[in-house]
Predict the 3D structure of the following.
Amino acid sequence: MSVRVRFAPSPTGPLHMGGVRTALYNYLFAKKHGGQFLLRIEDTDRTRLVPGAEEYIKESLEWCGLTPDESPWIGGPDGPYRQSDRQGLYKQYADELIIKDKAYYAFDTPEELDAMRARLQAAGVAAPAYNGVTREHMKNSLTLSADEVMERLDRGDEHVIRLKVPRQVEVRFEDIIRGWVVVHSANVDDKVLFKSDGMPTYHLANIVDDHLMHITHVIRGEEWLPSAPVHVLIYEAFGWERPAFAHLPLILKPDGNGKLSKRDGDRLGFPVFSLDWVDPNTGEKSSGYREKGYYPDAFINMLALLGWNPGTDQEIMSMEELTRSFDLTRVHKGGAKFDPEKAKWFNQQYLRMQPDAELGTQLQELLKTQSIVTTTERATQAASLLKERATFVADMLEGTYLFTAGSPLQENEVATTELKKRWKPEAEPAIEAYINALGSLPEFTATTLDVAFNNVLQEKGMKVGQVMPIYRLFVAGRMQGPGMFDVSALLGKEEVVLRLQAGLALCRSWA
Ligand code: GLU
């Protein structure tokens, strides 16, 4: 039997990185086993729908390279893949369970349900539930006469259909990640399967669809573990073979034990969503990995190792390598603490792995947005110098002085203040001698500049630390950055001499 897995998000907002990881593990598992990865939109809860969320899910998966084999947009043999487009087919399954005495009609009003909970709470029950015991005292087809039930249904009384959880049984299943899970049925509620609005609940639709879509493995977040016994009972009620379950560990806050939330991201300054998102109802903005400048393969690589390891020390892994090594049994049971610094580290590694020409093109594009026009060749040369300090392509924008003409000290208050602190008149003859030496260099390369500079230092009896910062501020306008000989070689003799002279003129004006 071929492996078929699904990612089944509800379009209730942007896709949390935990959701992307769930999609990724499903994808890797499917590809590893030569199976199919399906995407199903679970939108039966109409009250929680958020406009744009479905489109966001689609775009996120595309950006991450997690293209489903079957989805609402591509279609497939077991479609439709959007639950609202399957709306008509769930009722018959709820009816089937009623006929099999595995489900029942419940007519209780919200007030009656509240009263039941209040009564139980007053009697000391911590988590009051509609279950095998309490259902005996409620208005449902188990307690009412058949005639009355008929009457109520004919009259169109509001009602739901609930799962009839068997009493005194152990619900057990083997989770691929967690091992045996055993829950006593006394701890499982009679979940609503079909709502009074004519829509199935998540539980019913999810099981019916997994069955009809021939899903072999359900790989999803740990937050669904408490629902799994209900699902096992629903499969048993239908008499269907159930898929294997694998519940993934939570992604935890970097500092603490709770589940990673958007608030943690806002507080500590990192995205928790894949793409930027503006909530259409509140206008609230959330940042995404894509817009922060992450490469999708770096993001994916980082997520893959958040809760799983290949059993080796290898950290940098392409999608092909991840697919080859992926194994659900190596997914950790415990929560995975998210480390935002590590996420950056991954991006930095991916940035460094790229050929300079590639980075050059990316830098060139970015410079354009700053109205700086340059050739690909020059951007490539600059990228080869700037990439050492860059985690994101945008970090290379600190090297704009490589592309603009004229002294970088102009209207640069930070640099001027720094220069005032560092400037010593003794440096003046050394800079002058260096300017002279540049004039007679046969070749203007990092090596010849290095030699010329050191000759001048020796001749003037000065140390690197006395002259280099000044050279740097004159030519680059900042204290950090690539080596000054490389920078100068790229700028060319004329430009370097001009900047050195402009710097000297400025310092002299302070005397
Ligand atoms: N619609 C559920 C969600 O939003 C799917 C859970 C499952 O995979 O069964 O996560």
About this structure: The pocket of glutamic acid is lined by residues 8-10, 42, 202, 206, 220, 224 (CB under 6 Å). Residues 75 and 81 are 7 Å apart (CA to CA). The mean pLDDT is 97.
